[in-house]
Specification:
By secondary structure, this protein is of the alpha/beta class. It has a single domain, classed as Glutaredoxin (3-Layer(aba) Sandwich). The chain contains eight helices and five strands, in the order E-H-H-E-H-E-H-H-H-H-E-E-H. The protein has a five-stranded mixed sheet with strand order 3-2-1-4-5. Strand 4 (140-145) and strand 5 (151-157) form a beta hairpin. The protein is globular.
Length: 184
């Protein structure tokens, strides 16, 4: 379990609400955050990625290649609602699904796309998960929270819009939360 309050006084936190591992764009964004993770840690900033995936599906998908930051599963999208992120509904979900699958298949990411969708949909919650993927298009949000628990920066974008990579997030943290540690 990840407790945001546990970071208070110790670390700035980027809370990133994504579409998770079933989205080819989010997989690229996740890789960008992972690649710039050291830059984030240099600014005393942690990342918490929240996704509407099932926990067991995420465990199967990531396997032995776990992320260096917490990946929180919120399949009912309750946290999205708490943070004010909306569902753009079925028409946007259809557009997003077509664009996402086309992107994955034309960019050589077919295996990950099918694997992610299979793990997240083909299970005992099949109808519920199918509804989630076919009828909802959740906004993404990036909340930069300082060590005192104050939201210092907020970005809300559409379901497949770009999000900052790890180095860009580190720069946001530096600009909005201070410089980070002072060398001794």
């Amino acid at each position: 379990m990840v407790d945001l309050a546990a970071y208070r006084g110790r670390s700035n936190v980027v809370v990133w609400f994504s579409r998770g591992f079933t989205c080819p764009f989010c997989r690229v964004y996740t890789d960008g955050v992972r690649a710039g993770y050291d830059a984030l840690r240099d600014t005393e900033t942690e990342v918490i990625q929240i996704a509407p995936n099932l926990l067991e599906s995420a465990r199967r998908y990531f396997g032995d290649s776990a992320l260096p930051f917490p990946f929180v599963c919120d399949p009912d999208k309750r946290l999205y609602a708490v943070y004010g992120l909306g569902d753009l509904r079925a028409l946007e979900a259809t557009r997003t699904a077509v664009v996402s699958f086309a992107h994955a298949f034309t960019q050589g990411d077919t295996v990950n796309q099918i694997r992610g969708a299979w793990f997240d949909v083909m299970n005992r919650n099949f109808l519920r998960r199918l509804h989630h993927h076919a009828m909802t298009a959740q906004e993404q949000g990036i909340f930069l929270i300082d060590k005192e628990g104050v939201i210092r920066h907020l970005t809300i974008v559409g379901p497949i819009d770009p999000v900052p990579d790890g180095v860009q997030l580190a720069n946001l943290s530096r600009n909005h939360c201070g410089e980070g540690p002072v060398p001794a």
